[in-house]
Design brief:
Elements (H helix, E strand, L loop, with lengths): L26 H12 L2 H15 L2 H7 L5 H4 L2 H11 L11 H26 L8 H11 L1 H13 L9 H7 L8 H19 L3 H6 L5 H27 L11 H4 L8 E2 L4 E2 L11 E6 L4 E6 L7 E3 L2 E3 L7 E4 L3 H10 L2 H8 L6 E2 L9 E7 L2
Antiparallel strand pairs: 1-2, 3-4, 3-9, 4-7, 5-6, 7-8
Length: 373
């Protein structure tokens, strides 16, 4: 009796995915489309970064890779071209210039990366402490930055996306106008790429987005423009609501710290008042014993006089005045004893010219009197 042998079951081969499944027989266009629809941003980034590390010196590669991550993860056509070159395949028309384009792109990133590294070196400290700017940058990247990442991922997957309301997102994440620059450069970079493709002003951009209809290009361009408009409104709103810092009032003792004046005059038998009474007063009389000039300072400021160095501040130039006294002893008696109205009446009787005041006090000046009216 014949013994039946069992047939071996054939195991179906696992379908290739990822880089292993890139179509090689239909030219670069098919390869590029595969990268666009089938590979995620992590694969795109890895291919670009491996190419940079192999092609450039260690120092140059470090500079290029110092640029923001979206330069390596967001451009599937660039990664497809790098893959195609690694296979030593030729580019069919109209893609012959892709190798030059790759060199040009990373050449630009080399310069910007060097600047980033220079700034990073200048701010390095033995103890790592994040600056307020860096903390803000991280907060932006962890909040709205992720929303932008999600937007680009959905675009890569061919999904239709409505507008993103950045104004509302800023309020949601409690971000102010200072956060705008951390997003503006990235969104403007996206917008410029779609604009170049839509207006057909940049051949590489046209080729990169060749799979998109003009309607889709216009839609993405409009979304980028709307986001930039939102950022402008956020900056304007931030300026409008910014609190004005109220000047800090200096105490009287600090104001008179540098004040020079004459404490006593034996010639005219005069003694200066306490200079601490001058700040905050509304009227001040001074007399220069060397020039015989009497000055009357009047202020309309609610804070009264202030003193800065050796100069009286806040006086009203129209109401303040000075004159040279021919007989100081006679008139100074009026100043020391009478009311401002009575002094004004006596002043009108003087035959000497009335002049404006300059506010300066020197070591020949007696501080005669202050008044609160």
């Amino acid at each position: 009796m014949a013994v039946k042998t069992k047939k071996k079951k054939s195991i179906p081969k696992r379908a290739k995915t990822g880089i292993a499944a890139v179509p090689l027989e239909n030219g670069f266009r098919a390869c590029r489309d595969y990268f666009h629809f089938e590979l995620d941003s992590k694969d795109i980034s890895r291919i670009c970064k491996e190419f940079i590390r192999k092609k450039y010196s260690k120092e140059d590669a470090q500079a290029i890779l110092a640029n923001p991550e979206y330069h390596f993860s967001a451009y599937d056509a660039r990664a497809a071209a790098i893959f195609w070159m690694s296979m030593n395949f030729e580019f069919e028309s109209p893609f012959e210039k892709y190798p030059e384009y790759i060199d040009s792109v990373y050449g630009d990133l080399l310069e910007s990366g060097r600047k980033i590294l220079e700034e990073k070196t200048e701010t390095d400290r033995p103890v790592i402490r994040l600056t307020p700017q860096e903390l803000l940058r991280r907060k932006v990247n962890d909040t709205i930055g992720r929303d932008i990442d999600d937007l680009e991922d959905r675009w890569i997957n061919g999904e239709s996306v409505g507008e993103i309301d950045l104004y509302t997102l800023f309020q949601k994440h409690d971000l102010k106008g200072a956060a705008v620059p951390y997003l503006q450069e990235r969104i403007e970079f996206m917008r410029d790429g779609y604009r170049d493709a839509y207006d057909k002003t940049e051949e590489c951009a046209v080729e990169a987005y060749e799979n998109l209809s003009r309607k889709n290009l216009k839609s993405r361009l409009d979304i980028c423009e709307q986001m930039i408009d939102d950022l402008d409104k956020i900056k304007s709103a931030s300026k409008a609501t910014r609190k004005t810092r109220k000047p800090k009032t200096r105490t009287a003792d600090k104001q008179i710290g540098s004040l020079k004046f004459l404490k006593e005059s034996n010639e005219y038998k005069l003694v200066s008042i306490d200079p601490l009474t001058v700040p905050g007063s509304l009227r001040l009389y001074t007399f220069n014993v060397k020039t015989r000039v009497l000055s009357e300072y009047v202020t309309t400021s609610v804070n009264g006089f202030e003193i800065k160095g050796t100069t009286i501040q806040n006086f009203d130039p129209d109401q303040s005045r000075s004159t040279k006294l021919r007989k100081p002893n006679d008139f100074l008696t009026h100043v020391l004893k009478k009311t401002p109205k009575q002094i004004d009446k006596e002043w009108s009787k003087l035959t000497t010219k009335t002049n404006p005041v300059n506010g300066r006090i020197n070591d020949d000046t007696i501080l005669l009197r202050v008044d609160q009216k």
